[in-house]
């Protein structure tokens, strides 16, 4: 049996990295790998457990087929290592921090992938983005507008499990684990 690919998506600032960090040990105990992304951002600026590379390094990795999935967003390149195919082939579940804008392409490559959309109240999201200090207020407002457009479309998409992260992180971890266990995010 092949493993299950769980594709976690949500706006920047929704808490995807915090959720993955908080759930990592419990997911590992259930046999689920969390994939480390490759991103064209310096290691100091990553803010997540990812591999930072230069744009030239990313292009070289992409050219040699190192990525199962890759995309560009917000001026950066993101890649999911090809090793996920090996893990899925031997029956391991794999959770990736994906892209809302790349969901259609990901579904083409992995038709049975399970989508978890991490949502957060717009006011909470604005505060989180301001607190991390990576972007100007106008850039944050542009992100919020983009999130509203994506959110409406994705919430109406079949096969997307919604997971609200507006409250305590531990509650979100519990709901994620329950959804993965009880079939809300079961294999198709």
TrEMBL record:
Binding site for ATP: 10-17
Listed Gene3D superfamilies: P-loop containing nucleotide triphosphate hydrolases (3.40.50.300)
The protein's Enzyme Commission number: 2.7.4.23
One Gene Ontology MF term: ribose 1,5-bisphosphate phosphokinase activity
Pathway: Metabolic intermediate biosynthesis; 5-phospho-alpha-D-ribose 1-diphosphate biosynthesis; 5-phospho-alpha-D-ribose 1-diphosphate from D-ribose 5-phosphate (route II): step 3/3
Group of enzyme by EC: transferase
Catalytic function, reaction form: alpha-D-ribose 1,5-bisphosphate + ATP = 5-phospho-alpha-D-ribose 1-diphosphate + ADP
One biological process term in Gene Ontology: organic phosphonate metabolic process
UniProt keyword terms in alphabetical order: ATP-binding, Kinase, Nucleotide-binding, Transferase
Keyword Chaperone: no
HAMAP family (alphabetical): PhnN
Sequence similarity: Belongs to the ribose 1,5-bisphosphokinase family.
Listed NCBIfam families: phosphon_PhnN, PRK10078.1
Stated role: Catalyzes the phosphorylation of ribose 1,5-bisphosphate to 5-phospho-D-ribosyl alpha-1-diphosphate (PRPP).
Name this polypeptide is given: Ribose 1,5-bisphosphate phosphokinase PhnN
Encoding gene (name): phnN
């Amino acid at each position: 049996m092949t493993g299950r690919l769980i594709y976690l998506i949500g706006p920047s600032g929704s808490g995807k990295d915090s959720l993955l960090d908080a759930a990592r040990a419990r997911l590992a105990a259930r046999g689920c790998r969390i994939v480390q992304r490759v991103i064209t951002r310096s290691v100091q600026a990553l803010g997540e457990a990812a591999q930072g590379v230069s744009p030239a390094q990313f292009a070289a990795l992409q050219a040699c087929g190192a990525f199962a999935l890759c995309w560009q967003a917000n001026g950066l390149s993101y890649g999911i290592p090809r090793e996920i195919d090996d893990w899925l082939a031997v029956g391991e579940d794999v959770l990736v921090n994906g892209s809302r804008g790349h969901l259609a392409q990901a579904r083409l490559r992995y038709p049975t992938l399970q989508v978890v959309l991490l949502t957060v109240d717009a006011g909470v999201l604005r505060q989180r983005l301001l607190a991390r200090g990576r972007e100007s207020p106008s850039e944050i407002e542009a992100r919020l507008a983009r999130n509203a457009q994506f959110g409406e479309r994705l919430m109406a998409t079949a096969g997307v499990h919604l997971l609200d992260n507006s409250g305590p992180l531990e509650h979100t971890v519990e709901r994620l684990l329950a959804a993965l266990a009880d079939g809300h995010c079961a294999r198709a």
